[in-house]
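To close the chapter, one final illustration. This time we ask the reader to focus less on the individual chains and more on the assembly as a whole: which components sit near each other, and how the overall shape emerges from the parts.
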Amino acid sequence: MTSPAVLAAVDWGTSNLRVWLLDEAGDVVGERKSGEGMSSAGGKGFAAILEEHLAALGAPEGLPAIVCGMAGARQGWVEAGYLDVPARIADFAQAATTAPGARRPVRILPGLAQRGAEHPDVMRGEETQLAGAELAEGAHFVCMPGTHSKWVAVEDGVVTGFRTAMTGELFHLLASHSILRHSLGETPDAGTPKAPAFQKALRDALANPERLTSALFAIRAGGLLDNVPSEDAAATLSGLLIGAEIAGAKSAAPAMHVVTLVASGGMAKRYAAALGTAGLLVNLVDADDAVRKGLFEAGRRLFLSGASA
Amino acid sequence: MTSPAVLAAVDWGTSNLRVWLLDEAGDVVGERKSGEGMSSAGGKGFAAILEEHLAALGAPEGLPAIVCGMAGARQGWVEAGYLDVPARIADFAQAATTAPGARRPVRILPGLAQRGAEHPDVMRGEETQLAGAELAEGAHFVCMPGTHSKWVAVEDGVVTGFRTAMTGELFHLLASHSILRHSLGETPDAGTPKAPAFQKALRDALANPERLTSALFAIRAGGLLDNVPSEDAAATLSGLLIGAEIAGAKSAAPAMHVVTLVASGGMAKRYAAALGTAGLLVNLVDADDAVRKGLFEAGRRLFLSGASA
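The assembled structure is written out below.
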């Protein structure tokens, strides 16, 4: 017998949607995944999509829902704004925005913004992973890799600053639209982090990140001159981009020696290996667990505080 | 009265074709430009296209033609191979390949290749610009900016090594296919090299080239948070990529203090300004003149040596 659901937790990204039903301990009692991300949800509508998934999970009427991610972007369900850094993680929930048109209470969490000409930056969704990483007091550097990798500095529960590296998007762009596509083949696969081509490119980029844009062209030249296999070319592209990302993050945060890596699956393995090669100690937090925990904690504060007080 | 043409000089790139008729002093007596570059020339055929342009220019039967560029690539008219570096500039012409199917003598110049795992690289066309830059004895560093910018080390007439930065291609990719396109608008224009946004981005990238992939994302964040105008966003993208290119070239060639810049038009102005900001002295050579001179010198050696000896 499962405990009753007290909250629907929703991670609504650009391309994907994930819905969990959680009990009062935050444990999962139901789960759905879907490709109805923000960019395709406009037609049917966000409220209707959410209701469909909740109905399929047998969620009771009136069950409150907490949402993070691109559903809160301007082109999403409703704009959920940004909290400016420095921002206290414990304050994220109370800045949530009510979503219109839903048959139940739905709140969407805000993103984070870093304003000013020095390095403007934004995140939307990762702030909830960060909250769910349950960092202890003290100073932390957090890496959340992906299409747009986030590097976040946290001090005593306050996000003090962050930077976004376009690593995943650059990999996709270069592999599918640039001259490098001729060397990477139809379905580029960066392979395992132990691949010698990945490790060599990673070390090259860590040593000379300022040469990135010419190291990239060498992938094409290697294909032309030496028939470098496409899997090695893809591993090299991945190693160069991740190496440059880590070198940039180290340069922006010279005090960083330990990194809390919030990632899952193959991405976690690849970045853990790369951070190790870069001489950083890694504290791994599962990204799927983190976002669910972050959503639960925010939902608990917003909807369940009466019950748990 | 113009002097009679003794040579047809052809710069046949990926996207464009340029044909000059030159007299025995190498002066221009006729010129044609066309969009029939290597990538679109396959249908009608290279020989037929060349004959059309030569007929339109009134070139005499049997006038020899010298060709450089992508017409010598594997997917071009005929593969003209590569000379391996170190390569003596004076030796380029004698390595030319005869093009088949032409109604006149046609020779295609080879590209240059840098083999080995350290930094494989290739060029095709720029070697002829380099020959036409007529460098004096001694050591030179040459920058040939473009879609794929070439940085070449030359010592006493010998190309000793080179690197290619994907600057122009990255600008196009990021401006048209990445998330940055939302901030750059439909027709991105990097503006003048005096634009404050270009200068700031250039200085930032020269100071911290290792942060390139996160500095890029800040363009998008600046658009979201501060409604940065699209022309400033485009200038920033250009400044970041050119700054990173120059920083990488400096790191790979620490002895470089003077740069021979082979470029024309707006590209020449932009790179001259950027190289100056980077503390490098610039010796400007017009790229159009250089390729024509390089072709003439090679054609003279191959076809006209009897006459001029």
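Chain B touches chain A through 48 residues (CB under 8 Å). Residues 8 and 65 of chain B are 4 Å apart (CA to CA). With these observations in hand, you are ready for the problems at the end of the chapter.
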